[in-house]
Amino acid sequence: MTNKKEQVTGNKGIRSHYSLFLCYLLPAVCYLFLACSSLPRNPGDVYDTRKDAETQLEMGTAQADRGSFAAALVFVNEARRLAVITDNSSLLIRSGLTLGNVLSALDNADGAFEAWNKALEEANLIGNRELAAVCRIHIARGKLLSQDGKNAAQSVLDDVTRDLAMIRSDEMYIAFAWTVIGLAEKELGRYTAAEEAVRRALAIHEKNRSLELAAYDWFMTASFRSLSGDSGGAVKALESAIEFDRRTENSWALANDWQALGDVRKKAGNLDAARAAYTRAADIFRALGNSEAAEQARKRGDAM
Q1: Residue 143 domain-assigned?
Q2: Nearest CA among 206, 226, 225, 227 for reference residue 215
Q3: Cα separation values, 228 from 86, 178, 266, Å
Q4: What is the pLDDT of residue 67?
Q5: What is each CA distance from 22 to 6, 49, 271, in whole angstroms?
Q6: pLDDT in tens, 22-74
């Protein structure tokens, strides 16, 4: 079964938020200088650049969630530039984490780790232990996605479990940690434990109506079940992923869901259903303008 969303979730990301692409807002401190006539009359004016950065970051996240990583990189780089201009730690950290996720999806591992580590340096600089833990979890997830992921799995599991205990103020970051724990358990061959971890993330995502991330949780669950030999359970999990991705019109994820469904059905010996799933994936990829992915899906169907 292919592993679509672990490149970004986060995640979706995976999408990958982890998605891949989670946000964390540090408390803003406003300094009011009375009797200074040169200041803008509207205090909101001083946040225009930050707002622009937030918009660029959101647009980059949206592009990445739908598999358009090259386009996402353009937006995220601009968000990063604006973050540097504002000298705002929250933006520097969040844009750095997102930049790392996008670069990872583009197979630029060195660039990804550089971005994540810069975010960690900023979190340490401002003394935010919770946000530093989030940065370390992103780095740990990157290690799992590396070629040495299996060998790193146990140390990643230990580190993320420790960092998870430090995250208290943001449920979405807690969910992100649980998905990384699930991925580590998968690498260790403990598929039941992996599913249990991701189920905890799923509960948070469903509670917060984060449907794209919930779809990613079901996609990962399907992977765990397929690896454990539970083809029927994997099909049911992918059907749930498809249901959520349809609700959010996440076409890139839908195409990957159908391709994974083809893999599972092929593994179970249901070749006609597998071929139909591959065809559906190819059709969606082609409609999205991704002819390369469409051709890969078509070849999977023809190879049976």
Answers
A1: yes
A2: 206
A3: 49, 20, 15
A4: 79
A5: 14, 20, 38
A6: 332 222 222 222 233 333 444 555 578 999 999 999 999 888 877 789 999 99
Confirm if 134 and 46 have CB atoms less than 8 A apart: no
- 184-215 pLDDT, tens digit each: 999 999 999 999 999 999 999 999 999 999 99
- CB 116, CB 142: distance < 8 Å: yes
| Domain-embedded: residue 35 | no
Rounded Cα–Cα distance for residues 143 and 49 (Å):
34
Query: Rounded to whole angstroms, what are the CA distances from 259 to 16, 211, 300?
Result: 17, 20, 9
Residue 191's H or E segment, with its range, is helix 191-207
Domain that holds residue 252: 5-25+48-302
Q: How many domains does the chain have?
A: 1
Whole-number Cα distances in Å, 16 to 28, 50, 235: 28, 25, 21
Does residue 37 belong to any structural domain of this protein?
Answer: no
1 confidence band (pLDDT: 50, 70, 90): low
Q: Which amino acid is at 93?
A: I
The answer to whether residues 90 and 81 touch, using CB atoms and an 8 Å cutoff, is no
In a domain, 84, yes or no: yes
- Dihedral sign from CA coordinates of 128, 54, 107, 11: positive
At 17 the three-state DSSP class reads: strand
For residue 19, give the 3-state DSSP assignment. strand
Q: How many CA atoms lie within 13 A of 218 on its CB side?
A: 26
Residue carrying structure tokens 């982890």: 18
Domain of 19, CATH number, reads 1.25.40.10
Question: By the 8 A CB rule, do 266 and 274 touch?
Answer: yes
| Helix or strand run (H / E) with residue 104 | helix 89-105
